[in-house]
Amino acid sequence: MKNFIEEVTWRGMLHDVMPGTEEHLMEQMRVAYVGIDPTADSLHIGHLVGVMLLKHFQLSGHKPLALVGGATGMIGDPSGKSNERNLLDEATLRHNQEAIKGQLSRFLDFTSDAPNASELVNNYDWMKNFSFLDFIRDIGKHITVNYMMSKDSVKKRLSSEAAEGMSFTEFTYQLVQGYDFLHLYKNKNCTLQMGGSDQWGNITTGTELVRRIAGGKAYALTCPLITKADGTKFGKSEGGNIWLDSVRTSPYKFYQYWLNTSDVDAEKYIKIFTFLSKEEIEVLTEKHREAPHLRLLQKRLAEEITVMVHSAEDLENAIKASNILFGNSTSDDLKQLDEVTFLDVFDGVPQAEISRNEIEAGINIVDVLNENTGFMKSNGEARRALTANSISVNKEKVAENFVLSSKDLINNQFVLLQSGKKNYFVVRVV
C-alpha cells in the first residue's frame, strides 16, 4: 500500500485533511469519491485536479468512485458562486453523464476486474425515488439549521455583500451532498470524500451524517483551488474555459494553454497535472532554472497532459501547428492542418474574403496583395516586396508572375499570405 497522503502532499495537492485519514488509508484498501456536476457534456481543466486525486488514490492501491451529480446538478451548489445556476432536465443530464464518463475513462479504468477498479455512480439513481417528506424526516432532522448556517458557502451568500439571497433549494444542497456520502458509505463502503477546498463544509456535513445516522466514521480531504501566479483565473483563456472535449477546445489550443504558463505556474502544475515522479520533476526543474529560456518545464507539462487528455497523434499535430508560426515549417505541414486548428493557429491574424469564382479563374499575386485583400497598401509596395523575395504563399516564396488559383487552397478554403518572417494574412474563399 502506497502512502496516498504523502504523495498528494509533495505534489501540492493537499489543502485540508481530517485527522486520522492517513492512518485509516494505510490499514487496508479504502474507497473514496469525488463529485462532478454534469452541467456540460465535457469536463474542463478545472475538474482535472479532482480526477488526478482519484487516479493517485487508485495508484496507491485504493478504489476510486467518480460521482456524477445528476441530482445535485439539478439543484446547484452555492459554494464559490454568487448566483444560482440554471437547472438541467434529466435527458440533458444523462447525455452529459455519458460524455463525461468517456473522458474520465482516459484516466480511470471502469472495465477492469481488479478489486480497486474505478466505478462511475450517479446520485440521481438513489435520489429520484426519495420523496421530499421522507428526506426531511429521515435525513433533515439529523442536522440543525444552526449547523448548516455556520458553513462558509452559506454565510457568503447570506452576507450583506451578496447581490442576491439564497433559495431554499440551494440551502439544501449540503444535505443532499451529505446524503450521497451516507449512501456510498452504506452501499459501497466508501469512507472518504475528496474535493476542492470550497467543498469542505459540504463534505463534513456528510461525515456528520455518517456519524449520526450510521454510527460510523468517515473522512474528508480537500485540495487547494488552483490559482495562477498573475492572479488571473486558472483554466480560462480569452475564449472562456479550456475544455477536455476537442470540439470545444482544439488539441492545439489545449497544448498552447499549458505551453504558455509562467515559470512559477509550470513548477506547480507539473506536480499536479502529470504522473512524473518526484525525482524526474526535481531534475527537470533544476534544468529549467539553469536555462529558463528553453521552457523545458512548460514543454514537458504540455506534452504530458495533451497525450493524457487527447492522444500522442494530437500532440504531434499540435507541435507541428505551433511550429508553423515559430519554426521552419513547409507548405505540406500547413496543408495537413484541419480547419479548426488552422483558424486557431491564425487567430487574430487579419483576414479578407475572395470569391471562389475569382480564385478558379486565377488572380495575379500583385492584385491579391493589394486590390483583393489590402495586405499591401499599393501595387508598387506589392511589387517591391515580391522583387525583394519577401512574399510567401502557403509558406513558399513567390515571384511577381505567380497566379493564385484553386490548387493553392488549404482545406479547399484558405490561403496563407506572408510578408517577411512575422506578417501573416489569411485569405478565406467564399
Walkthrough of the structure:
This protein has 430 residues and is an alpha/beta fold. 45% of the residues lie in helices and 14% in strands. It is built from 21 helices and 15 strands. The longest helix is centred in the middle third of the chain and has 16 residues, at 173-188. The N and C termini lie far apart (62 Å). The mean pLDDT is 90.
What keyword list fits this structure?
430 residues; 6-stranded mixed beta sheet; 45% helix; elongated
Look at the helices and sheets and give the structural class.
Answer: alpha/beta
Instruction: Give the overall pLDDT as a whole number.
Output: 90
Helical fraction equals 40-55%
For the terminal residues, how far apart are their CA atoms?
A: 62 Å
Give the overall shape: elongated
Number of distinct beta strands: 15
What's the story with the biggest beta sheet? 6 strands, mixed
Low-pLDDT segments: none
Strand content: 5-15%
Radius of gyration over C-alpha positions, nearest whole angstrom: 27 Å
Spatial ordering of strands, largest sheet: 1-6-5-2-3-4
Tally of separate helices = 21
GO molecular function, one term: tyrosine-tRNA ligase activity
Catalytic activity: tRNA(Tyr) + L-tyrosine + ATP = L-tyrosyl-tRNA(Tyr) + AMP + diphosphate + H(+)
Enzyme class: ligase
Pfam families: SYY_C-terminal, tRNA-synt_1b
